[in-house]
Amino acid sequence: MTTAIWGSLVLAAASALALNWAYFQQHAQAAQLPPLSVRRPVASLRLLFSNLSWLSGFLVGIGGWVLYVAALALGPLSLVQATSAGGIGILALLVRRLGGVELSGREWAGTALAVVGLVLLGVSLAGQAGTSHGSSGSAPDVAIWMAASALLAFLFAGPLAARLAAGAGFGVAAGLCYAAGDVGTKAAVGGGARLAFIPALLVAHGLGFVFLQLGFQRGGALATAGVATLFTNAIPIAAGMIIFGEHVPAGPLGPVRLLAFVAVVLGAALLARPGAPAPGPEPLAATTPAPVP
Questions:
Q1: What is the pTM of this model?
Q2: Domain span at residue 222?
Q3: pLDDT at residue 77 in the model
Q4: Looking at the 3D structure of the chain, how many domains does it have?
Q5: Fewer CB within 10 Å: N-end or C-end of the chain?
């Protein structure tokens, strides 16, 4: 491999470590704060950003995202994504070693399936290296995709949350919103009239942030950030095949990609499966906001 590709792998690994430590740190701090309320956004944001430990996690997360972008600038998406796929495994180890939380066999199995699925997605993308990056997508199709993602996000944060592990509904909602933002970004880089997607993608990322922080107060790091990571990684690839003309690769890599999606879905299902009841605020639809200073 060239020096640039080695550099991209190092940057991707550093990015995965930074991002997942950031998730772990933010979860640990948000879980101890007074209840955050979407009806009091300024007060809730003040609670978060005035907590120096939470802020350190937030800033490290931004640094991790910068490292990820730098890795993409040096190496192919397939290798960068395959390296980053280990992030959920890092999160599981942080929860176990630093958080002192004993993970169940189901959680370890879900983590393992998720890592395998994301790595296989990266392998399947290798078949498209050097080929067309697809189209900018039809503007109506992109708008429908983003609107449907938002609707599903609110359903998972609201009425469907009670059917999942504590916090997992918000994790799914966050992943759907972050993925919708990525889809909007893909459309916006086409320029011209598609720049109109910029406000929508910013709103999508903002909602993803909100859902993730609310999830941190309701469930474990794996059920929130872990599930969000899976959706954020996998859904844009599905969108690429459906609305951006990035077809399933020919030959053996086609079944590899389909198997990858199956593994990701099964991993997410295991991590989001309800376990022992966990204390915390009720789902968004049933939450009665408590006053915050």
A1: 0.78
A2: 3-286
A3: 57
A4: 1
A5: C
